[in-house]
UniProtKB/TrEMBL annotation:
Subcellular location: Endomembrane system
Lipid bilayer topology: Single-pass type I membrane protein
Domain SAM: 126-184
Annotated GO CC locations: endoplasmic reticulum; plasma membrane
Bilayer-crossing regions: none
Species name: Clupea harengus (Atlantic herring)
Keyword line: Calcium, Calcium transport, Coiled coil, Glycoprotein, Ion transport, Membrane, Metal-binding, Phosphoprotein, Signal, Transmembrane, Transmembrane helix, Transport
Gene Ontology biological-process annotations: intracellular calcium ion homeostasis; regulation of transport; store-operated calcium entry
Name assigned to this protein: Stromal interaction molecule 1-like
Signal peptide: 1-22
Predominant location: membrane
GO molecular function, one term: calcium channel regulator activity
Length: 231
């Protein structure tokens, strides 16, 4: 991905991340009922999964990510910034062709597109063990392994970590340190949008080059986050 595109995307991501942190601060997001609209939307897009409560929670998280990215609230995310990540990070070798089937004529990403991209990610099929490996090696928060295992947290639930939910992070996963919550939120968002940090078959650590590339992307994002002060 060329640097300017990656930077643009990261500003975008970090701005909506910041916004969502602000937005939901102080709100008690306990046992919330699924809204009828998200149920019917998921049933329209993905009939086999719409009876599944866990899938619905992940779908609501994807909707919330989409909503934060969709600055002008027209229901779609502009495709310009996503070209880079389609090509580089999701391994679509011919992004133009992909765009055409992916976006139709309007060149925008809808909730449905984002859901389908997410379902096509190998992370969606990760087992609990693979998520724990991610937690230890990539997020570097091994102390929460037990909570993740207790909750049977597998890859399909990853989007829920990418959006603010104090019930999940504090109450269920027992993350009492605010910095840990932010760290895992950022890394989960990265993993949901861009796929696994590294090819799993090589382990998270051994592919040094990829690791360095990845870290620099995150670091650039974090740096800009402070410079532009999105929050
Ligand atoms: C995930 O697993 C399902 C069921 O085994 C399979 O149909 C699907 O292709 C897998 N997706 C990916 C991205 O590997
Ligand atoms: C992940 O967990 C969900 C809900 O518990 C389950 O439906 C799904 O089959 C699991 N996926 C994998 C790959 O184990
Ligand atoms: C937050 O997480 C909890 C526990 O996993 C879940 O029951 C609740 O529905 C989530 N809230 C939202 C708004 O997704």
């Amino acid at each position: 991905m060329d640097f300017s595109k990656s930077v643009t995307l990261w500003i975008l991501c970090l701005c909506f991340l910041g916004e969502s942190l602000m937005e939901k601060q102080g709100s008690v997001d306990g046992e919330q009922q699924h809204t009828d609209s998200s149920v019917s939307e998921l049933c329209r897009i993905d009939k086999p999964l719409c009876k599944d409560d866990n899938a619905l929670l992940s779908f609501e998280a994807i909707c919330s990510i989409h909503k934060q990215m969709d600055d002008d609230a027209n229901g779609n995310v502009d495709v310009l910034e996503t070209d880079g990540f389609l090509r580089e990070d999701l391994n679509y070798h011919d992004p133009k062709a992909k765009h055409n089937s992916f976006h139709g004529d309007d060149q925008f990403i809808s909730v449905e597109d984002l859901w389908n991209v997410w379902k096509g990610s190998e992370v969606f099929n990760w087992t609990v063990d693979e998520v724990v490996e991610w937690l230890i090696a990539y997020v570097e928060l091994p102390q929460y392994e037990e909570s993740f295992r207790k909750m049977n947290f597998n890859g399909s639930a990853m989007p829920r970590l990418a959006v603010k939910n104090a019930t999940l992070t504090v109450t269920v996963l027992k993350m009492l340190d605010r910095n840990h919550v932010q760290k895992i939120q950022l890394k989960a968002l990265d993993t949901v949008l861009f796929g696994p940090p590294l090819s799993k078959s090589h382990g998270f650590r051994s592919a040094v080059h990829a690791d360095v590339k990845r870290l620099s992307r995150v670091d650039a994002g974090v740096m800009l986050f402070y410079i532009y002060g999105c929050v």
